[in-house]
Design brief:
Elements: H1 2-7, H2 31-48, E1 87-88, E2 97-104, H3 110-119, E3 124-127, H4 129-132, H5 136-144, E4 148-151, H6 164-182, H7 198-206, E5 212-213, E6 217-219, E7 224-226, E8 238-242, H8 253-266, E9 270-272
Parallel strand pairs: 1-5, 2-3, 2-8, 2-9, 3-4, 6-8
Antiparallel strand pairs: 6-7
Helix pairs in contact: 6-7
This protein binds zinc ion.
Length: 278
């Protein structure tokens, strides 16, 4: 329910509101009326959070999921014949959407949860246990709002420097923690720093991982970094930012999200949910 409501178009979102409080028979508002009311709510939320424009609503999830393969140059040997999880930076789509992914987990700002709820922005969190274990409850709340939690290892090591067995421990160990704390083993894993070798993908597969997305842009509180030489965003790009606050950089998660949302909205992109395309 939470996941569905998060992504529902303007017209559908009234269904998530409690029906209590009505006195006597109330005629259901027309779809247009609901849409207008939801749009007004979003306009107010955007203003409240200091955005320059109202974030765009993403299209509904695709009826048919795109085929995801390793990005050219990002494959390892035996990528295809051993059916190893693909590493990719962009989802193949013609839609004007990007995917927001947020890593690590040190900053646990309750206002960030509220902001993304108010604005209905979906995102995927890649968690590293050593940073989240002091407050699993924060991430459980995030999950209850419909966001997906994925694997980012136990201790955030440089994986290619470890043996196959040690890499497997980092990935499978985090799968166990996630099952215990959040109820399921993810099928999506991101190697720390985006660094991996063939052992990483073999270990990830052995731990139940099917996809290893990295990113095509990284957002910081004060600048963007692009992977592509032309320094441009593309349809379907996976965007990375981090759970960081004033102790890590010169601003809050709210400032970071404001920068992200203002830019993508200005360029005509909506934020879609990564798992809808995997
Ligand atoms: Zn990380």
């Amino acid at each position: 329910m939470a996941a569905a409501s998060l992504l529902s178009s303007c017209a559908g979102s009234d269904a998530t509101r409690p029906a209590s409080g009505h006195r006597g028979p109330v005629r259901a508002p027309s779809p247009q009326g609901r849409q207008a009311a939801e749009h007004a709510r979003l306009v107010a939320a955007a203003e409240r959070w200091g955005l320059k424009r109202v974030p765009l609503t993403p299209p509904p999830p695709p009826a048919e999921k795109p085929e995801i393969t390793a990005r050219a140059g990002f494959e390892v040997s035996h990528q295809e014949d051993w059916d190893l999880p693909p590493v990719f930076t962009t989802i193949p789509t013609k839609r004007k959407i990007v995917f927001l992914t947020i890593d690590d987990g040190s900053e646990k700002d309750p206002r960030f949860l509220k902001m993304m709820q108010d604005l209905k922005i979906p995102y995927t969190a890649f968690l590293s246990d050593y940073l989240v274990k002091d407050d699993y409850g924060y991430f459980r709340r995030m999950q209850s709002y419909g966001h997906t939690l994925d694997n980012h290892t136990l201790h955030h090591p440089y994986l290619p420097g470890l043996s196959y067995e040690d890499q497997k421990h980092e990935i499978c160990g985090m799968q166990d923690i996630m099952k215990k704390q959040f109820g399921k083993r993810p099928t999506v894993f991101r190697p720390p720093y985006g660094n991996y070798n063939q052992d990483t993908l073999r270990a990830a597969k052995a731990c139940g991982i099917k996809y290893a997305p990295i990113w095509n842009e990284e957002v910081y509180v004060d600048h963007w970094e692009y992977r592509e030489d032309d320094q441009k965003m593309r349809r379907g790009d996976i965007v990375l930012t981090h759970f960081r606050g004033r102790s890590d950089w010169d601003g809050t998660m709210i400032d970071d999200m404001r920068r992200f949302l203002n830019k993508i909205t200005r360029e005509g992109y909506a934020v879609a949910r990564l798992e809808d395309y995997l």
